[in-house]
Specification:
The chain is mainly α. It folds into two domains: about 70 residues; about 170 residues, Four Helix Bundle (Hemerythrin (Met), subunit A) (Up-down Bundle), CATH 1.20.120. The chain is about 75% helix and about 0% strand. It has seven helices and no strands. The chain is globular and about 55 Å long. It starts with 14 loop residues before the first helix and ends with a helix.
Length: about 250
């Protein structure tokens, strides 16, 4: 402390590097070993090593985040930057879809089954509810009610799992009707955009679990839970664009 003001400084950590190395080993190297070079053993070794490093990276980074109790205005700077980058990826997928949609002679293309709107409406209700329940949890945490926070966090996780279950159910139904990733342009766009969003829901659930596990032993802080909520609300908002473009247009 100097002159009554907090001195901000850069934070350094080895765990983001460990996490990135795990992703590198577990995804491109594992897939290349198995699919490109036909080596199941190498693929399994790279995959398991990558998974181990990913777990270590997440656990270590989470531990450091929980130990940091700073409430300064710079604490959440990194997450909005990450969200902007993710927004650009989603936007590129939507632009590709718009180009397919607007330049096609016939839409939906031949071979596309009827995709009802009942399931996506239900999924929207579920996902919006999960954001609301997490907000309830944050309010409980602000009031010092850790038990209430853990309860609403678990409800949010349950709703997120229900959303993913609906996605898998819909995929299974459509695939059995012959609507696979390579059926036509519509199917490619459908699975690419909804699948990419589903991976973000899965990631958000992973973040929630990372919040829940230490919270069960009384370890958490507002910055950490706030970042988790911000990411989840972003995933929720993106879903509205997915629904409006893929199901209703």
């Amino acid at each position: 402390m100097t002159d009554g003001h907090t001195q901000h400084h850069w934070e350094y950590s080895m765990f983001p590097f460990i996490l990135a190395l795990g992703v590198f080993l577990g995804v491109p190297l594992a897939f290349a070993s198995f699919f490109q070079y036909g080596s199941g053993l190498a693929g399994a070794v790279f995959g398991l090593a990558g998974l181990l490093l990913i777990v270590i990276g997440i656990a270590g980074w989470t531990s450091e985040g929980l130990a940091e109790n700073s409430e300064n205005g710079y604490a959440l700077t990194g997450l909005p930057i990450f969200i902007v980058s993710e927004t650009m990826i989603f936007l590129s997928l939507f632009v590709s879809y718009w180009m397919l949609r607007l330049t096609a002679a016939q839409w939906p293309p031949e071979g596309t089954p009827h995709i009802g709107v009942g399931m996506p409406i239900f999924m929207t209700i579920v996902l919006v509810s999960s954001s609301i329940t997490y907000h309830f949890g944050e309010e409980k945490l602000d009031a010092g009610d850790n038990s209430g926070f853990k309860f609403w966090l678990q409800v949010s996780i349950g709703l997120g799992l229900l959303f993913l279950g609906c996605t898998l159910y819909e995929y299974n139904h459509l695939i059995h009707e012959g609507f696979t990733f390579g059926t036509n342009a519509k199917s490619t766009a459908f699975y690419a955009i909804t699948g990419f969003h589903a991976t973000h829901v899965l990631l958000g659930l992973g973040i929630f679990v990372s919040v829940l596990i230490p919270a069960l032993s009384g370890k958490t802080n507002r910055t950490f839970t706030g970042a988790a909520g911000l990411y989840w609300h972003f995933v929720d908002i993106v879903w509205f664009f997915v629904v409006s473009q893929i199901y209703f247009w």
